[in-house]
From TrEMBL, chain A:
Keyword Repeat: yes
The keyword Repeat is assigned to this record: yes
Natural source organism: Paractinoplanes brasiliensis
UniProt keyword terms in alphabetical order: 4Fe-4S, Electron transport, Iron, Iron-sulfur, Metal-binding, Repeat, Transport
A biological process from GO: lactate metabolic process
Domain Lactate utilization protein B C-terminal: 403-475
Chain segments carrying region Disordered: 1-21, 449-476
Protein name (record): L-lactate dehydrogenase complex protein LldF
Residue ranges of domain LUD in the record: 85-295
From TrEMBL, chain B:
PANTHER family (alphabetical): LACTATE UTILIZATION PROTEIN C (PTHR43682:SF1)
Natural source organism: Paractinoplanes brasiliensis
UniProt protein name: L-lactate dehydrogenase complex protein LldG
InterPro entries in the cross-refs: FTHF_cligase-like_sf (IPR024185), LUD_dom (IPR003741), NagB/RpiA_transferase-like (IPR037171)
Positions of the LUD domain: 41-208
Superkingdom field: Bacteria
Length: 476, 215
């Protein structure tokens, strides 16, 4: 049963979707910190991706110019959002698609569920999509008797493991090969008991398991990386080909896209197609990118629906400092450079958007009171800003949001002092060094960089680390 | 109020009366640059594609396909095929079983049963090692290059551009486009790269070079 969205609040509604955790970040982070396997996996993953990404970015002499163009394009898009969305709707409609507008998660789920029901099908194949995870579409479909099948290998591992994604790009990064083998043997119908834990064998098992599903399922649900207003073209960027399967084989395709994903002109792809793969997977180009415009007779799905999703995005837009978070192209580069993420993993953030971008996006989508600890889930070291291919100033948004979060009086005073220092990076760095020299280092909350260590354990002023974060990071 | 009007009203209220209109700096590298074929090949190989630099397309195809069975988009010229395959197309009833089948609306099962597909490309990007298919007559429906495990793409030097901006400028947005960089791959298991989860596990590029230019 789906509940009617009242569409009164501009924030993402409570009780649906995955933008709020069961417990605040500091409590969830403590659990994660006690898991050495998780930390090893995360450290290996983030280090590897950082290295690859750095190498291919260094190949481009104009990376900074591309970042500036990407940043300006996003700012331009936000400033012209109503016109661009209407243009996108007009072009998609002219090309044979149908456009739906969803004010929140309830409405988006109802639209998609109704569309699937109208086809008479009981199963949909899904391309990995942050937007559909955000609104809890799988749960809504299941409640209506429709089976959603995740087809991205990592999402499949997460789905079969009755688990939650922990990274935007590599959602099953918290699992290693032997765990994945066990999940497949337990949950994948027809899995060969002789299956080893070789990655190529595990991938082969997923290929065999999903092939028949791809060929026999008539409805697919996807997200979109870009929707081009000028032409009505949608783009999905992927690696495995499961996206191509979903976007090509079924009769009906339903794409759920956040309203901020619109791109003004066809030409602008020349910027984003250079920024995204290099920042994201550290590849010059991802293995597959699919682009389609409405319906092409004789080629691909003959019914195409585009669902434009608000679900709190207009609330983000209303905040002049915070609205930059809507520029995010979900590359996950900020996760991979974040010392807090590297220690806690994605689950601790409670939302489908983990890491630095999650720390600023989730509280804005839900209203800061529902995710009050997330703006503190950062050391304000600035690494995320430097890594972001569209130059989102995450540290500034964090500081800004800290001022909006409701806290008891004692806590507020401590945080105000901490925020002031951290708002002035030079001062912060000096304070860290001075504290270190004075051997003021305490034992509480070790494992997290400040201010989280101090806050998580004692709610005191941040405790200084043995070496300043910036020193430590540079030395890695 | 419809959700469309509600969302548009919320956006307008959020933006205020006169949101600043930033200029877009376009001082990144754009415009034509010489396309470096060696760089293209290096980048393709780096992505685990197998590259054949040849003057004789049909000979290369014979070597790559071996005994396999091939599907062909409608516009792929028969001249690309080994001569001994051809009688099968004209009268499949007589002689050996057909080595290839042309797509005239084949079912997904028929396409999936083929060992290989041969297509052309619309454009290739040297800097990224990417080929782009635009569903032209010699490339066919998207499904053709998706289901068979081996994709052979015949590329002419004139189709190669240096950079992504040049490729974007050459392509027609209304067509279904598939950008391909190496065969299908995943890194989802402990970040180990594994070729081929769902798309073709083998990508061969036949780069056609004039005999004179190769000597
Ligand atoms: S905030 Fe920037 S770095 Fe982080 S995921 Fe978004 S685009 Fe990537």
């Amino acid at each position: 049963m789906t509940k009617e969205g009242t569409a009164i609040s501009t924030h993402a509604p409570r009780g649906v979707g995955h933008l709020r955790g069961d417990q605040p970040f500091p409590a969830a982070a403590k659990v994660a910190l006690a898991d050495p396997q998780l930390r090893r996996n995360l450290q290996h993953a983030t280090t590897t991706i950082r290295g690859k990404s750095g190498r291919v970015i260094a190949e481009l002499p104009d990376w900074q110019e591309l970042r500036s163009a990407g940043s300006a394009l996003k700012a331009y898009t936000m400033a012209n959002l109503p016109g661009l969305l209407e243009q996108l709707e007009e072009k998609v409609t002219a090309a044979g698609g149908v456009v739906h507008w969803a004010a929140d998660a309830f409405e988006a789920n109802r639209i998609v569920t109704d569309l699937v029901r109208q086809t008479g099908e009981r199963r949909v194949i899904k391309v990995k999509s942050m937007a559909t995870q955000e609104i809890g579409l799988n749960e809504a479909l299941e409640a209506d008797g429709i089976t959603p099948v995740e087809t991205d290998l990592a999402e499949l591992i997460v789905q079969l493991g009755h688990d939650k994604p922990s990274h935007i790009l590599v959602p099953a990064i918290h699992r290693n090969r032997s765990e994945i083998r066990e999940i497949f043997l337990r949950e994948m119908p027809g899995a060969d008991p002789a299956l080893t834990d070789e990655p190529s064998e595990l991938a082969g098992a997923a290929r065999r398991y999903l092939r028949e599903t791809f060929l026999s399922t008539k409805v697919a649900v996807s997200g979109a990386n870009f929707g081009i207003a000028e032409t009505g073209t949608l783009a999905v960027v992927e690696s495995e080909g499961n996206g191509r399967m979903c976007l090509t084989l079924p009769d009906t395709l339903i794409t759920v896209m956040g309203i901020e994903k619109v791109v003004p002109a066809w030409q602008d792809l020349e910027v984003f197609l250079q920024l995204l793969p290099r920042a994201s997977t550290g590849e010059r180009m991802n293995p597959y990118t699919s682009m389609w415009t409405g319906v092409t007779p004789g080629d691909g799905p003959q019914n195409f629906h585009l669902v434009l999703l608000d679900n709190g995005r207009t609330a983000v837009l209303a905040d002049e400092v915070g609205r930059q978070a809507l520029h995010c192209i979900r590359c996950s580069a900020c996760l991979n450079v974040c010392p807090v993420y590297e220690r806690t993993g994605g689950h601790a953030y409670g939302s489908v958007y983990p890491g630095p971008i999650g720390a600023v996006l989730s509280p804005q989508l839900t209203g800061v009171e529902d995710n009050a600890s997330l703006p503190y889930a950062s050391s304000l070291c600035g690494a995320c800003f430097d890594a972001c291919p569209v130059k989102i100033d995450i540290p500034s948004i964090l500081v800004h949001l800290r001022n909006e979060a409701p806290h008891p009086r004692s806590e507020r005073a401590a945080m105000a002092a901490a925020a002031y220092t951290m708002d002035h990076p030079k001062l912060y760095e000096r304070a860290q060094r001075a504290a270190r020299l004075a051997k003021l280092l305490g034992k509480r909350g070790r494992g997290l960089p400040p201010p989280l260590n101090g806050w998580a354990s004692s709610r005191d002023l941040p405790e200084p680390p043995a070496e300043s974060f910036r020193d430590w990071w540079r030395g890695r | 109020m419809s959700s469309k009007n509600l969302i548009l009203r919320r956006i307008r209220e959020a933006l205020g009366d006169d949101p600043a209109q930033p200029d877009i700096p376009r001082d990144y590298r754009r415009g034509p640059a010489p396309a470096d074929l060696d760089l293209l090949v290096e980048r393709l190989v780096d992505y685990k594609a197998i590259v054949h630099r040849v003057s004789d397309i049909s000979d290369a195809i014979r070597r790559i396909v071996g005994n396999g069975k091939v599907v062909l988009p409608p516009g792929v010229p028969v001249e690309w095929l080994p001569a001994e395959w051809l009688p099968a197309e004209r009268s499949p009833a007589e002689g050996s079983p057909a080595r290839f089948v042309r797509d005239d609306g084949l079912t997904p099962a028929e396409i999936a049963a083929a060992d290989a597909v041969i297509t052309a490309a619309a454009v290739a990007v040297a800097e990224t090692g990417t080929i782009v298919l635009d569903a032209g007559e010699d490339q066919g429906r998207r499904i053709l290059s998706l289901l068979p495990d081996l994709h052979i793409c015949v590329l002419r030097p004139g189709q190669v551009v240096a950079s992504v901006p040049e490729a974007v400028a050459r392509l027609t947005p209304g067509r279904p486009l598939t950008w391909i960089s190496g065969p299908s791959a995943t890194s989802d298991i402990e970040l180990n790269r594994v070729e081929g989860v769902h798309g073709p596990r083998n990508l061969h590029i036949v780069l056609v070079e004039e005999a004179a230019a190769r000597s």
